[in-house]
Amino acid sequence: MREAKQLRLNRTSNYMKRYWTLYLMLLLPIAFIIIFRYIPMAYILNAFKVNNILRPPWELPWAGNNGFEWFIKAFRSRDFLFALRNTFMLNILDLVIGFPAPILLALLLNELSFKRFKRITQTVVYLPHFLSWIIISGLALRLFAPNDGFVNIILARMGRNTIPFLNDPAHWVGSYVTLGIWKEAGWNTIIYLAAITAISPELYEAAAVDGASRLRRIWHITLPGLRPTIIILLILSLGRILGSDFDRPFALGNKMVRSVYNVISIFVYEYGIKGMQFSLSSAVGLFQSAVGVVFLFSANALAKRYGERGVW
Question: Do residues 206 and 217 make contact, with C-beta atoms less than 8 angstroms apart?
């Protein structure tokens, strides 16, 4: 027994002597996560306490209605219900329309015969990922402005009616989703192209010998090979179904489309930061995170039930 224990200790000691530098490198990211991710979680209590930013939440008394006053106030707020509806609507449209876009783009790029053109195209389509939404909103204004936008100027000279891309709620939603696809589709394509490279070329050669067309090879080889990656990214996307970026709707929105651009992040900004209702914004943020966790676990469980690996 002692010999076995001593053997394990020697193995652990030898292992640490060999790989101690790797664990040393982990200290910085672990410290970052603890300091900036876990310690701030203590302030989740703000969602259940009296609104007072000058004192730590653990020293404050509980809010009314057994601590759920801010949650009740949020769900009685017409602005919050509109923000909740808009967040669901925009995220579902992003998921339904935007999620397949990088898959299709990766399939098209994979079928290109000219490798140089493929590399150039791949570089061009993922460059918008590095642009901020402030820059993209400026480009959108120059292109889609109702009177002096480039697209509407061309339409006017062709004798067509101008299109209120950014001033009409329905057109704004279409522009919002389209710009989101343009910005992120190329970046997500890299993930799918990497997954395609892991598929054995012998499968394509055998299918070609059997007379399978390109579409048949895509349907029966490439897509099944991509399925695990698609499932994982879909699960992660469903976990963000109630999440909302602040810069994207804030940069593209205006007063004329407030009925659709006012999402949860805008609501938190206006009520929490500008309105100084920090407890209310904490309650909304906690609700948003809780719903995201429920969607994430549900999607992962559903994937495992149908034989997929899932995220964990």
Answer: no
